[in-house]
Amino acid sequence: MDVRLHPVRKLRVHWPISGTTFGQLSKGEPDAFRDDPGIAHLLQALAEFRELGDFGHYKHVFESSLGFEGFTTAEGANPTLGRVGEQTLSPTFVFTTYFDASLGDAAVERFMRRLVEIHPWEVPVIEVTGPISVSSTALAPPAEASKTEAPMAEGAAAS
């Protein structure tokens, strides 16, 4: 099998969830992805963009993790959760996917606008990286790979 590196950009979205959903996901209950309206809405919106999570034979590929967001709301804010002047902790679903590094700015702006439009926070935490590399086996025939890039060693991580 030919494994090569493919230049991509990373999209990471931090999405608030309920304590119930956090508990379900932490126990490995995949129904929480459908049962939580916010996560379901996020995944549905992101599926509208075929460029996101395209790994050749695998589409809409994503990774997720659980955590907490912490923030103190300042004067003038209109918080969805918490009160001005108080520190708030929110259970959080962290969604990560990738898109081709050559994707144009207009396309990136379209899915970023969509995410901001549906996100429940006044100021959502959405990260977009510059180009990085991930492993892929669906890029080129093995003979072509040796001419352009060295194959990634077995067990090596993406950089």
From TrEMBL:
Gene3D superfamilies: 3.30.70.120. InterPro entries: N-reg_PII/ATP_PRibTrfase_C (IPR015867). Residues 137-159 are annotated as: Disordered. This is Uncharacterized protein.
